[in-house]
C-alpha cells in the first residue's frame, strides 16, 4: 500500500480549436508520447520534488494548491506523503504539463489508497479537474482528456459534459517551437472571456468558425490530407490572432515556418507566448526545424504516439 509506484500522464498538442472549446465548440488534440511520471510514498518527513527539462519546479502556492486538490480528493494527508515527479516536457509552454503532472500524481494517489479500477477512473477525473482548475480557471477539460489517453481526438463540451471521439490519423511528424515565455492560461482564458462578455454578437460567430475549422480538420487529418490540415491550421491561427491571444513572437514564428516550406503553422494552447506547431512534409521538415531553431527551442514528435 505504501510502496512507491510510478505512474504516468501525457502532454498534449491542441491542433484546432483552443479557446473556442471553452465555449462548447469542437477542438482537436493529440496526446504526446512524453509528459510526466510521478510516485507517491508514505513518509515521516515528506518532500515534494518535481523536476522538468529546465531544472526543478518551484513548489509555489499554485503548485501546492493543485497537488493539495488531488490529495483532498483521495482523502490523503499531504503532510504524510512524499511526491517524486519528473516532467519530460517543458513547463508552462502550452503542452499540457500541469494536466500530465496531475494525472500522474492522481494515478499514484489512487494506487496508494488501493481503490479498484472502476472507482479509480471517476476519482482520478475528479482530482485532475480540481487540480487543473487552479491553473486554468475555467478549464474545458481537453488537457485532462489528452493526459489520460493516447492519440488524436475531437473534444467538445456543448451540453456540460465532454463528448470525445477518437480519430484515426496516420502517423506524421509534428514540429513544436517554443518561442516565448508563456502567459498564464487562466489570464488568457479570462482575456477572451472579457472580450466575449463585451461583444458576444461579434465573438460568437468567430467561435462558430473555429468549430467549422476543427470539423474540417478532423476529416483532413483522418484522410492524411496534410496540405489541407496545414491550411486549416493557418486559418485557425488567424482566428486566434483575431481574439487577441497571439503575440509578435508567435506571429513571427508562424511566418518563419511557412516561409521555410511548412504546410501550416499556428499557436497552440492558450497563447500570449509559449509554442507554435508546424506541419511540413518530409522534404521541408528539416528546413522548417532549422529555421525555427533560430527563434526558440524546437521539439518534434511523431504522432499519434505508438505506445
Ligand atoms: O494553456 P494550455 O495549453 O493548457 O491550453 C489551454 C487551452 C484553452 O482552450 C485555452 C483552455 C482550455 O481549458 O481548454
Question: How would you characterize this protein structure?
Answer:
The strands form 2 sheets. Strands 1, 2, 3, 4, 5, 6 and 7 form a 7-stranded mixed sheet that branches. Strands 9-10-8-11 form a 4-stranded antiparallel sheet. The mean pLDDT is 93. The chain has 9 helices and 11 strands. The two termini are 27 Å apart. It has helices at residues 61-73, 97-113, 117-136, 142-148, 185-198, 200-223, 226-242, 248-259, 285-293; strands spanning 7-16, 27-42, 48-52, 55-56, 81-87, 152-156, 163-167, 172-180, 264-268, 274-279, 297-303. Helix 6 (200-223) runs antiparallel to helix 7 (226-242). It is α+β, with helices and mostly antiparallel strands and 307 residues long. The structure holds (3R)-3-hydroxy-3-methyl-5-(phosphonooxy)pentanoic acid. (3R)-3-hydroxy-3-methyl-5-(phosphonooxy)pentanoic acid binds next to helix 4 and helix 5.
Q: What does this entry show, briefly?
A:
The protein has 307 residues and is an alpha+beta fold. It is 43% helix and 25% strand. The protein has helices at 61-73, 97-113, 117-136, 142-148, 185-198, 200-223, 226-242, 248-259, 285-293, and strands at 7-16, 27-42, 48-52, 55-56, 81-87, 152-156, 163-167, 172-180, 264-268, 274-279, 297-303.
Helicity range of the residues? 40-55%
pLDDT < 50 stretches: none
Mean pLDDT, all residues: 93
Classification by helices and strands:
alpha+beta
- Strand percent estimate: 25-35%
Gross geometry: globular
Q: Using only CA atoms, what is the Rg?
A: 19 Å
The description of the largest β-sheet is: 7 strands, mixed
How many helix segments? Answer: 9
Small molecules (ligands, ions, cofactors) in the structure: (3R)-3-hydroxy-3-methyl-5-(phosphonooxy)pentanoic acid
H/E order of the elements? Answer: EEEEHEHHHEEEHHHHEEHE
Oligomer: single chain
Let me know the number of strands.
11
> What is the CA–CA distance across the termini?
27 Å
